[in-house]
Queue: 2 jobs
Job 1
Amino acid sequence: MNSASPSVVDLKVSSPESVTPAFSPLYRQIKSLIMQGLQSGEWRPSESIPSEMDLAARYHVSQGTVRKAIDELAAENLLIRRQGKGTFVATHAEHHVQYRFLKLMPDNGDTQSEGPAQREIIDCKKLRASAEIARALALRTGDSVLQVRRVLSFADTPTILEDLWLPANPFKGLTAERLSQYHGPMYALFETEFGVRMVRAEEKIRAVLPDESQCTLLKIKPTTPLLSVERVAYTYNDAPMELRRGLYLTDTHHYHNELN
Amino acid sequence: MNSASPSVVDLKVSSPESVTPAFSPLYRQIKSLIMQGLQSGEWRPSESIPSEMDLAARYHVSQGTVRKAIDELAAENLLIRRQGKGTFVATHAEHHVQYRFLKLMPDNGDTQSEGPAQREIIDCKKLRASAEIARALALRTGDSVLQVRRVLSFADTPTILEDLWLPANPFKGLTAERLSQYHGPMYALFETEFGVRMVRAEEKIRAVLPDESQCTLLKIKPTTPLLSVERVAYTYNDAPMELRRGLYLTDTHHYHNELN
DNA sequence: CAGTGGTCTAGACCACTGG
DNA sequence: CAGTGGTCTAGACCACTGC
């Protein structure tokens, strides 16, 4: 309604020579405004954002337009709608599904009876990024990174060996102790302690054989084939914030995937 | 236009003692009507379905309601919307992404330079379903199934060994010859020749070591770890129509997955 | 140009939650 | 009961396609 609407600017055809029209519908602009609010911390994980009506008033658009923006954000798991209650910022904590990105399941599908994983931090140290790690994290070779190694066990059987690398700067102060003491998903700790929220990830999966140290930690023979799961996790803006390499023992578990 | 609209019936609260309200909004009922049209073959793969306006008239609802139904079907990859042209029934054929369900990628990501896979049918025979296969395909033990074995190669390197099992009845007439002669994805052949359209699938992935016959077919040593990918593919109505077990060589390729 | 899907609005009403 | 998200409608207009 208001003729001056400084926050909503249509980006369409700013210059005639633009080859890509880059037409952006209103609801996408609203979507990115909401995303800015998430990124800036205006609305924090597990909190509720304003109602659709309030947001419509704030951005001077109709409720339907806000709705479509929120629909997309909910589809991307950034927001969670709860009828009658409101719309909430998604979080890796207090999510009844404990590990959102861990696709390893017990073969009998019952993730309940298995109980929570036992976690043991093996190591956590600061070092300089190799070329490969730097590339994955969009850093420069030699930049400071934290390296963490841990083992996850189910029913006292070591099942997952993980090495992970984090850019040192946003995770300043992360120690093995801090990791050991924290109960809950690691990504939940990243949210609450460091304000880093993992939004999506890509994985590359291979079959490999373990080396000696890996055999020791997982208590297996060197002929046991393992799943190698290399993950890059991203925050907002597609910024990579974690490289993780997991070795999964698949005797009693399997990596579960749904295709559409 | 007809005032009697027998096809649209609200299912809500048919009996007061129903514990689950089972409230189904209009657009979901429209969605399932459209799905019936797909399943019955009224609209066939790659064809266009009627325009939103036409469907709205047919079902006596507004365009917006039809739109929301189609939105969900498009999100599930059953339909494809093309602005200015119409809405089309998705197909495994003539889909520029050749293998929609195959997540194995060359390590350098360039699926183009690699070219299409060379395919060799090793075997295709009819046999009786084991208990395990029967369970996966929702058949009874001993029912007739077709078993196919084939090898896919990239750049003349055998990379994938696949065994697959199909219920014999819907696939009557499928032979090794038919499979060899067909150029294009197997699921495209299933669509055009047998009217079976695969809609979604579930995979269980493990790391394994090959047995002797597998070594021979893939030309590898018995110590080469392989990805075991066990897939059940479903048609409409969540009816399982294929069990497939792939062994992937992951020296130069990896299984790629996106997490949200 | 007509026909398609895509966006945006305004308003009415429904379903669910919690005080 | 008020407040939230969810559904449905009708109508206007925009963007894209192909004739």
Job 2
Amino acid sequence: MTRTRRYDPERRDRIVDAALRVAHDGGIAGITHRTVAAEADVPLGSTTYHFGSLDELLVAALRKANEGLGRVLRDGLGDAGDGGGDELAATLARLLGEWLGGERARVELEYELYLAALRRPALRPVAAEWADTVTAALAPRTDPVTARAVVALVDGVCLQVLLTDGTYDEEFAREMLARVLAGAPERPTRSTAT
Amino acid sequence: MTRTRRYDPERRDRIVDAALRVAHDGGIAGITHRTVAAEADVPLGSTTYHFGSLDELLVAALRKANEGLGRVLRDGLGDAGDGGGDELAATLARLLGEWLGGERARVELEYELYLAALRRPALRPVAAEWADTVTAALAPRTDPVTARAVVALVDGVCLQVLLTDGTYDEEFAREMLARVLAGAPERPTRSTAT
Amino acid sequence: MTRTRRYDPERRDRIVDAALRVAHDGGIAGITHRTVAAEADVPLGSTTYHFGSLDELLVAALRKANEGLGRVLRDGLGDAGDGGGDELAATLARLLGEWLGGERARVELEYELYLAALRRPALRPVAAEWADTVTAALAPRTDPVTARAVVALVDGVCLQVLLTDGTYDEEFAREMLARVLAGAPERPTRSTAT
Amino acid sequence: MTRTRRYDPERRDRIVDAALRVAHDGGIAGITHRTVAAEADVPLGSTTYHFGSLDELLVAALRKANEGLGRVLRDGLGDAGDGGGDELAATLARLLGEWLGGERARVELEYELYLAALRRPALRPVAAEWADTVTAALAPRTDPVTARAVVALVDGVCLQVLLTDGTYDEEFAREMLARVLAGAPERPTRSTAT
DNA sequence: AATGAATGAGCATTCATTCAT
DNA sequence: TATGAATGAATGCTCATTCAT
């Protein structure tokens, strides 16, 4: 019969993708079993079968979306020369600008999933991974403590842009990143804060 | 004369306070007409009567909750001496520690309301106010651009603490705030002149 | 408009009645918000509005159904003369026979609601009321302790009939009730077991 | 020779045991293919493979759980001397106390399975077996009719304890059992002859 | 023979909002 | 002006059962 659609091993992945699409359009709040099932064109029961709870689905989605900024930084920094803090700051500011300049909804989605961890403990580990990914991308270029501060500054700058309908000011970001990076100890491998 | 006041202005405030208490305990998602009405001990219809929609109530609540960190900084910085960037950094780091060290739920609530603006345009102006309040507290001590960067860094540091179950590292915050403040144009930079 | 059906003060009662009708036909397990709403011809939301939970509805239904056997005994014993234990036993056995001889589904319903208390603590108090009602009907004719034993024996006899597709043996019931009643202390008001 | 047994008879038993454990903890209502399969640590399909329906599994479980009170009585009465009704009543009351004094959940489970027969005709024969088992344990000590009444009284007393959160009153049970047994035809009645 | 992916029906419950009073 | 009864839509989730493998 043509009716059977049984055994679809990629079903799980398709559901996660659908969830990301839903969140992309309507925010995390829009993710429900029903909306996701409809978007993925699978029966409702399929979403609850593959994911024990919505949180589980959310974690999977967050994990998949996680790579946006991290990849941008990793790719962008890989090419850059091994200059000093000022050059690194300029590169970071430029990459950030490229990322923020992309589709707004995509950026919002990534940050919304990240920030959702505030009230959903289940997402905390994945949020930590997100921070780690970005930190790791910076690792080869500065010490871990400074890298952590860069992540914080980047997060704060992005938040200002996203939350206040502001525009990204690349020069501002470059300057402030430079200040943070300027204080780094001489060799990237050093890891003490002071 | 014998009539109790017809137009009860306290009623509205009590509802807002109840909404904050509800959000404090169960997050923004916990705010519904029912929970708020129950918490405020007012009839269900009263919440829909005084607030045309839930968003309207949310905005009122956000505006009221907004003053936490801002007030901490304003009060704390008012007392502090007019030292250089390093001293300011130390003071800020200390104040931040005090704020984050307080009741976790209160801190989460303030940030949750702030971050909710990401997906609710109605909250954007209030989120901007939040940032402005913190910036204003810093205004007398550094230039506006640096103040904005400080706000970004503070946000990022708070986020790392809140989103990853991490602990606040005051020394780390002090060091990084010092780096950002050190680059400010007019004020003394790295020199230790009091 | 003819559409409006608002303000129906008897709505709550009608829902309880519908629940009893549903349980009558399909057992307690058949009681769901949907089946009851359909039976009562009210919107689904109406059942959850009037009863905070299914248990609450169940308690109301159980309380309403509670009076079956109790009323039979109260009415039947009221008429009977003030004979000794043997006469009381005969009367009880006859009344029990009349009650069990009625519509089977009704008897099952009453016992099912009563027995449901085993796993639903919320129903325990109502089940206790049930036992108290029957005990109270016997109170004027014997001492409380014996009355309690009569209730136990009656319950056990009914159970045998209901659970094993057996037939009610009035003579058997009369004999055993007489044995229990024969041991009662001389005066009904006495309340010691021995 | 080298093949592990194809037809695995233990599997079926393990599933029944798991079902009893599930019912023990969460009541009959907690028995589902999923919970049982998880508890038995067998694949989901295994439960539907070995049991055509849930009722079939339930019957198997009920039959296995059936022996609790019956065994207590058989064992306990076997040892006891061949005393008269009063001694038998005392022994029965003591045994009942021991059984009810054991783990509450176990007692509830046994009665719940027994009472479930009220609405599930498939369980009726097994419920009848339950009554027969208890009756059989009493058979050597009194006449069949009195034994049946004893079972009824025991059931009623247990029900009062289980349904009303009451406490078991051994003296009460002893007295009432004695009254019923005293009326038995052949055996010595109130006389204490050993 | 055995399994686990799949599914459609159904569940209790929550909710924002409406509107008759 | 103020309220609470009413409601339809939606939500997360569970389940017995089927059936391709």
